[in-house]
Amino acid sequence: MTAMGFSGAISYRATAFIVAPLLVLVVIYGCLWPPGVPTAFFRLQNGANTMEITPKDELETALEGVAMENRTLIIAILNKAYVEQNAMLDLFLQSLGEGEDTEFLIDHLLFVAVDQRAFNRCRTLELHCYKLVTEGVDFSKEVFYMSDAFNNMMWRRTLFLRDVLRRGYSFIFTDMDVMWLRNPFSQLSRDGEDLQMSSDFYYGKPFNNSNFNTGFYFVTANKKTVALFDEWYAWRNNSKGMKEQDVLQKMKKEGAFTRLGLKVRYLETTYFSGFCQMSRDLRKVITVHANCCVSMKVKLIDLRSVLEAWKVSNSNGTSNATTTAWPPSSETSLYFACGQTEITPKDELEAALEAVAMENRTLIIAILNKAYVEQNAMLDLFLQSLGEGEDTELLVDHLLFVAVDQRAFNRCRTLELHCYNLVTEGVDFSKEVFYMSDAFNNMMWRRTLFLGDVLRRGYNFIFTDMDVMWLRNPFSQLYRDGEDLQISSDCYSCNPFDNSFFNTGFYFVTANNKTIALFDEWYARRNNSKGMKDQDVLQKMKREGAFTRLGLKVRALETTYFSGFCRMSQDLRKVITVHANCCGSMKAKLIDLRSVLEAWKNSEISLYFACGQTEITPKDELESALEGVAMENRTLIIAILNKAYVEQNAMLDLFLQSLGEGEDTEFLIDHLLFVAVDQRAFNRCRTLELHCYNLVTEGVDFSKEVFYMSDAFNNMMWRRTLFLGDVLRRGYNFIFTDMDVMWLRNPFSQLYRDGEYLQMSSDFYYGKPFDNSFFNTGFYFVTANNKTIALFDEWYAWRNNSKGMKDQDVLQKMKKEGAFTRLGLRVRALETTYFSGFCQMSQDLRKVITVHANCCASMKAKLIDLRSVLDAWKVNNSNGTSNATTTALYFACGQTEITRKDELEAALEGVAMENRTLIIAILNKAYVEQNAMLDLFLQSLREGEDTEFLIDHLLFVAVDQRAFNRCRTLELHCYNLVTEGVDFSKEVFYMSDAFNNMMWRRTLFLGDVLRRGYSFIFTDMDVMWLRNPFSQLSRDGEDLQMSSDFYYGKPFNNSNFNTGFYFVTANKKTVALFDEWYAWRNNLKGMKEQDVLQKMKKEGAFTRLGLKVRYLETAYFSGFCQMSQDLRKVITVHANCCASMKAKLIDLRSVLEAWKVSNSNGTSNATTTAWPPVKGICLHDTATKQHTATKH
Predict the structure, then answer these.
(1) In the chain, N or C terminus with fewer CB closer than 10 Å?
(2) pLDDT tens digit string along 993-1041?
(3) Distance of CA 1060 to the CA centre of its chain
(4) End-to-end distance of the chain based on CA atoms, in angstroms?
(5) pLDDT tens across 175-219, in order?
(6) What is the pTM of this model?
(7) Residue ranges of the Nucleotide-diphospho-sugar transferase domain (predicted)?
(8) What CA–CA distance (Å, rounded) separates 472 from 573?
(9) Do 442 and 427 contact (CB within 8 A), yes or no?
(10) How far apart are CA 957 and CA 1005, in angstroms?
(11) How confident is the model at residue 713 (pLDDT cuts 50, 70, 90)?
């Protein structure tokens, strides 16, 4: 024993006494076991080589040696970073040694070491140790929050803890960065709770909290919690980049806790405290968790301070019942929060606040850095506005400039302003920071942290960005009707108490418990919101109900008074401040704000100053262009033109040809304004003697072809939105048309004038003209009025907060969030029967007006297909009249070349049953190697019950030449689906680009099969067919029947479906589903097709299309995620929840062997429902569960 004297270590003698009898039992058991049956079990773990993870004897011995009589223990994960001298392990043990009634708990604490060094240190200290080694994974280093290694460690512990529950042990799991100050068991309720979890934030609701933390929780072993951990770990593969805690929160939101019948209690932070929300009562605090804190170094500093403060307040071993607060000292403040005490030295800041604040403890705060203090830079302009504004000069005396670098502080002192130096070691805020850069976000969060401390000190304040001009004193307009927070708006929607477009560059906050709690929670969210700026996080908190939950009264300030470049005040008599929001560059802000100030002084403010936009659209030239093109009713057509469109025989020529050859369209060219975004496009436009307007933006090059969803594509889309908003302001209505739209008839006769302000084309149309989420901004008609101007203002303002989204997606998001309704807009979706496109082609040549090359990315493909459209139109419309008897089905981005009709039709006819039903599987090179997946798949069909004949009705769709050759060699039914330039010949890994391309490629192909009138089962190759499935597939009007990763008894409502096996009936509804499914591909890059289909289901696509969808029970259609327990029922076994081809092959062979053993002589053994013991890597097992249950 060491000097620490920890008892209860597992002695070698005790181990020998336990192991020896077990070895005798194993020998006897081996003799009695019947020959021919494998002796290994399905492993409960899901992941490569997990059989080595939890050797039953060793772990069982460790658990028995530690657990209390009621089979309860404490578990902590230990790695190399925690066991250094004076590191986290020593501090953790110190807390247990010095806490109230905690020292004995060390005897019931199992340290699970994930590397050799941690294990050795644990053994040296004579603690209870268990070594959890995973081959090829190194957990020996410190892992940083949300890194891949961090997530791997979190998931690894979930897998291990799941196995502990299965063995019947209840446990407290604790992170090592938790100080145990008192014994927690007295506070852990035993009122039937299955799970009791610590909270980052607690708001008085013990049974409903979304802010739980998996760093400390108590779980009772039972069927419900085992099922929870099973499902939790299974979500890992579908939740890449999410930590396990976030996944559990997502499961809670989706109802998993309720569905599993779990009673979950959330622990109060008064007792189970943390840095996110620190307990204020020393008499009650039990544990302190260093949550909301990233660095190991900082955690150690703060946790040592916590322990020191605890010892001071708990001297002589008894709590000072008269003192509830933490003791003040030179090292500890009211809270311990990730080194924050170093950030805001109390005395100096208090002195600064007292000197500046008004009598009512109110002041103004602005953040200052080097970039703002240069000569004639933002600071000078900001002070000038205060000096020249109405009743504002006196406010300088109540304004505290918080300098974040030395140069800013020096300049502030030189100007004899009120200055406070907020320096953070290792962080440089001295340079200009660009919008949404890491430095920008760090500065925003740094100010949030600081301002929260100001509130704690009891001071109210206006926070103002430096790029805000103060033209009048704002306090007269700031309400005092009980508001806790009053915040400026990028766009104001006439509802002061419900606005999602607030801006944290100017706001007034009252100091109270509610606003302090808000700032605490806001800053704590920083770690979980990487890449989001503080303002976006606050908006997210509002959407999730934080304002309501905290009881805050929040008012949005009207842009009439508190104006900005996003939406400029039109009334000089009312405007108070002007913020350079919706503007990224410091240089542009300075130019425009100087113009604002000059206009203010001269009382000649124009309609708007918006980040240099006045230079973009010179009024006289544009007005002349619009007047020269518009019809008498001030209506025109607008198209954007760039260099890529004006090449010889390119899109411009084809576009003009359609107008020249369409019905009653040629005259429209006189009312069409081509807006050229580069000089070459403008020159070509002028050469053709068209109506041209040159829209040149300095430093931006739109002269090249831009590819779908590239940065250049998005910039062009937003640039046109800005320009079109200006056209509306000038009072002109317009049709906007992309250049890849063929105009076959005059559209104006079909465009309604029944009070619609906006009429938009649709990618898909399902009979609801006033409720359609699939609109397309490539063709629309908009009427100029206040409502549409407000829409375009708000639409463009969203650009900065929607990086990576194209303008169309932003408009769809605005619609979902109620912008159309809020603005009072009447919006009509145009029918694809008339305004057609490649996504959903009009079937009626008598009605079609326009054809848009949507759902098509390449310029080359668009040109080929649109020429075909125009040629087909001319053939069917010869002599100027429509041939009503002839209608073309579709032209869709080269898809006709993909699915050659004659060859595919012959293949389908040769395979299908009499009822036009077949089975389809996709085949590539990786599947056809010797003894690879194809051989195993065919073996299952040949050895299954009533399945061999199905091979005659199975079409193998080969995606590369080697797969096709192998298929033909085996004399199977084969179809060669080759796509030029795409290589599917290699094994593709889960969620790689190649994987997603293969999944989408099959969706496109399968949609074509449905169009041809064939129903089919689609099956992945990693599905073993043990019985004929058709007898189990219902024919009660279902359109689609899909396999499930997990099945919970609801055949018509399941979010865990799997597209690796499903049966689909060919009809209009399923054809529409596959059309829409494939069309979603372009808008959801990085998502696999299965996830997209799940998203479509959540958004109501199945219901909207009138589909009847049944989810197949895993008792029959089984998989590794949730294995069927009944051999009499199982039909198929899918290697889902398993990533590696090698692991799948090993496990599926084991499944097939087990099936053959249990199904000898070709008939099912009806008296045996369970699988025999089977060896596997990824498998979920029942055999092990039965063996464990028998033992206990």
Answers:
(1) C
(2) 655 666 777 888 999 999 888 999 999 999 999 999 998 987 778 999 9
(3) 24
(4) 34
(5) 999 999 999 998 997 788 999 999 988 878 888 877 789 999 999
(6) 0.42
(7) 105-302, 395-592, 668-865, 950-1147
(8) 10
(9) yes
(10) 10
(11) low
Identify the domain boundary among 602, 636, 667.
Answer: 602
Cα 183 to Cα 172: distance, rounded to the nearest angstrom = 12
Structure tokens at 712: 């250049």
- Give the length of the chain: 1192
Question: Phi/psi at 196 (nearest 5 deg)?
Answer: -125, 120
Distance CA 367, CA 447 (A): 7
Quote the CA–CA distance of 704 and 417 in Å, as a whole number: 51
DSSP track, 487-555: EEESS--S-TT--S-EEEEEEEE--SHHHHHHHHHHHHGGGG-TT--HHHHHHHHHHTTHHHHTT--EE
The Cα 305–Cα 321 span in angstroms is 21
Distances (CA, A) of 532 to 367, 671, 1126: 20, 44, 49
Q: How far apart are CA 384 and CA 505, in angstroms?
A: 19
Contact 920, 957 (CB under 8 A): yes
What one-letter code names the amino acid at 50?
T
For every residue of 545-608, which 3-state class applies, written as one string? CHHHHCCCCEEECCCCCEEECCCCCCCCCCCCEEECCCCCCHHHHHHHHHHHHHHHHHCCCCCC
Residue 340 dihedral angles phi and psi, to the nearest 5°: -70, -20
Q: CB-based contacts of 698: which residues, under 8 Å, 6+ apart? A: none
- The helix (run of H) or strand (run of E) holding residue 1060 is strand 1057-1064
- What the block records as the tokens of 963 is 């797969």
> Based on the domain organization, do 874 and 944 belong to the same domain?
no
Mode of pairing for the β-strands spanning 954-958 and 917-923: parallel
User: CB count, 10 Å around CB of 660?
Assistant: 11
Q: How sure is the predictor about 983, in pLDDT bands with cuts at 50, 70 and 90?
A: low
Which sign does the torsion angle of CA 143, 149, 155, 157 carry?
negative
On whether both 470 and 506 belong to a single domain, the answer is yes
Number of domains in the chain: 5
User: Which residue matches tokens 């512990």?
Assistant: 157
Residue 428 shares a structural domain with residue 457: yes
Is 387:393 a contact under the CB 8 Å cutoff?
yes
Average pLDDT over the chain, rounded to an integer: 80
Please check whether residue 109 lies inside any domain of the structure.
yes
Q: Any bridge partners for residue 1117, and if so which?
A: 1132
How many angstroms separate the CA atoms of 157 and 137, rounded? 13
Enclosing domain of residue 920: 899-1117
> What are the phi and psi torsion angles at 582 (to 5°)?
55, 35
